[in-house]
Amino acid sequence: MELTSIVDGTSAQIADAGDLEALDALERSSIGKKGELTLKKKELGSLEPDARKAAGQALNEAMRALSDRFAERRSELAAAAEATRLASERLDLTEALTEIRRGHAHLVTQARDRLEDVFVGMGFTVAEGPEVESAWYNFEALNIPEWHPARGSFDTIFVDLGEPEQVMLRSHTSPVQIRTMENQKPPIYIVAPGRTFRTDTADATHLPAFNQIEGLVVDRGIGLGDLAGTIESFVHAFFGHEVKTRLRPSYFPFTEPSAEFDISTADGGWLELGGCGVVHPNVLANCGIDPEEWQGFAFGFGIDRLAVMRYQLDDIRELVNNDVRFLRQF
Ligand code: DAH
């Protein structure tokens, strides 16, 4: 066969080779050790010296040309194989991003943060106290002596430490009033949000571990009007200006007079939010503050209840079930 037609035929086959294996096989059979052209080289010996030289040169050139083509095609095939591998290993990160959901603060935490913001905006600072309390802070200093019937109504969870019924999980945030007045001279303007505990069985409106926020103001010439105004400002800031507030006479040992405060609902009714009143002189005196010189008011209400009202939940237990389908909605 003519050398040029061998070269052309092989070149066409090289271009057609679909993978590296096919290319290698073709290379072996053409310019490999036992390939067609290599064998042709061995046949040169039978030619005349002049003819042998010319034929030898032509053959070498042809082999070199084919060898170049093999190399070229080999790198093409390698690049294609690499591209295929990369495509198969590619991760679609945009898909992953749309799948990932960021978490956010629990709705009780959101309510607590907003409450703090509103009160800080009104000039209050945020105070804290321990969750495990003594009978002095949880009851006695708040004008609830051992014999007082109100003590039973708190459904206290006692801690088995020291004298019986002297150490407890705080049943309200009011002990933070005492701790603050012990450590700070008036004027005092604080709110104290935190966890509180009672022996209640969880149901649609109760949790044994819940959250309250306490407020305390001690200053000169403070009265019921300041209390009503503060509650109204806070309710407007938290719920909106269309919501009204009212105080109803009530009883708490640590305030005199005492009231419960309600907020108006869209359907014309009222919802009870918490308790409040003018700080009882005994409470001020228990903290070394002269009730002749200083007066104050206090209030306290449930933060979980507030979240239930604000988001119109049917069951307060949703707040602690930790069902993300529920939590994601807020
Ligand atoms: N500590 C009361 C409770 O848990 C709520 C309360 C009522 C707090 C009147 C106050 C207050 O500061 O003045 O039921």
Give a nutshell description of this structure.
The protein has about 325 residues and is of the alpha+beta class.
Roughly what percent helix?
40-55%
Structural class: alpha+beta
Number of helical stretches of at least 4 residues? 14
Task: Report the CATH superfamily of the largest domain.
Answer: Bira Bifunctional Protein, Domain 2
Distance between the termini: 84 Å
What series of H and E elements makes up the topology?
HHHHHHEEHHEEHEEHEEEHEHHH
- Widest sheet: strand order? 1-5-6-10-9-8-7
Q: Mind describing the biggest β-sheet?
A: 7 strands, mixed
CATH architecture of the largest domain: 2-Layer Sandwich
Average the pLDDT over all residues and give the rounded result.
93
Strand-helix topology:
Layout: H1 3-16, H2 20-31, H3 36-42, H4 49-89, H5 93-99, H6 107-121, E1 125-126, E2 132-134, H7 135-138, H8 150-153, E3 157-158, E4 167-169, H9 175-183, E5 188-197, E6 209-219, H10 224-239, E7 245-252, E8 255-264, E9 270-279, H11 281-286, E10 295-302, H12 303-311, H13 318-321, H14 324-327
Helix pairs in contact: 1-4, 2-4, 6-12
The structure holds 3,4-dihydroxyphenylalanine.
Write up what this structure looks like.
- There is one protein chain.
- With 330 residues, the protein is of the alpha+beta class.
- It has helices spanning 3-16, 20-31, 36-42, 49-89, 93-99, 107-121, 135-138, 150-153, 175-183, 224-239, 281-286, 303-311, 318-321, 324-327, and strands at residues 125-126, 132-134, 157-158, 167-169, 188-197, 209-219, 245-252, 255-264, 270-279, 295-302.
- A hairpin with a 5-residue loop joins β8 (255-264) and β9.
- The two termini are 84 Å apart.
- The structure holds 3,4-dihydroxyphenylalanine.
- 3,4-dihydroxyphenylalanine binds next to β9 and β10.
